[in-house]
Design brief:
Elements lengths: L3 H23 L12 H12 L5 H8 L3 H13 L3 E5 L7 E5 L1 H25 L6 H19 L2
Helix pairs in contact: 2-5, 3-4
C-alpha cells in the first residue's frame, strides 16, 4: 500500500513538473527568426509541418484543442507569416494549411532542438530497467484520463 506521505510527495513533484513546463510554455522563443513565438505557436507550426495540407478540424483534433482555438491560432500565424491557407489539392471546398518559408525555418529549428531533447531523455531512460518508458506512458495515460474526467 502507498503511504499518504509518499503519495503527497508524488503529487508535489507532479505539480512542480507541470509548473516548470507551464513556465517554459509562457516564455518567448526565437527559433532563428525575428518574430518571437510562444510554445503553443511553435507546436502549431510543427503540427502543420508534420501534416502538410492538414485542415483546421484535423489540426484541432491532433492538438486536443477546440476548432475555435485552432482557427484563432492559425489566423494569428497566417498574419505573422508562418502559415498559408490554400484551397485543397483534393477538393475545392476545403481549406488546408501549409508552412511558409519562415514557418519551415521554425519547424526545422524546432526539430533540431527536439532531437537534442530526445537524446537527453534517452540518456535518462537508459539508466532504468527495460519497460520503464512503457510504464510511464501508461501512468501518463491514466493521469490524463483522471484529469479529463474531473474537468467534465
Amino acid at each position: 500500500m502507498i503511504s499518504d506521505d509518499r503519495l503527497n510527495e508524488l503529487c508535489d513533484l507532479f505539480n512542480q513538473v507541470v509548473n516548470q513546463y507551464g513556465k517554459f510554455e509562457k516564455e518567448v522563443h526565437a527559433f532563428g527568426v525575428d518574430i518571437p513565438l510562444h510554445l503553443s505557436d511553435t507546436h502549431t507550426i510543427v503540427a502543420i509541418g508534420k501534416h502538410t495540407n492538414i485542415n483546421i478540424v484535423n489540426l484541432s483534433r491532433l492538438q486536443g484543442i477546440s476548432r475555435s482555438a485552432a482557427s484563432q491560432m492559425v489566423s494569428k500565424l497566417v498574419k505573422r507569416g508562418f502559415v498559408k491557407k490554400e484551397v485543397s489539392p483534393k477538393t475545392d471546398n476545403e481549406i488546408v494549411l501549409t508552412l511558409t518559408e519562415t514557418g519551415k525555418n521554425v519547424y526545422y529549428a524546432h526539430e533540431k532542438q527536439h532531437q537534442q531533447l530526445k537524446a537527453k531523455l534517452t540518456e535518462i531512460f537508459e539508466k532504468y530497467p527495460a519497460g520503464t518508458l512503457d510504464t510511464l506512458m501508461q501512468i501518463g495515460t491514466d493521469l490524463k484520463n483522471i484529469w479529463e474526467a474531473a474537468s467534465k
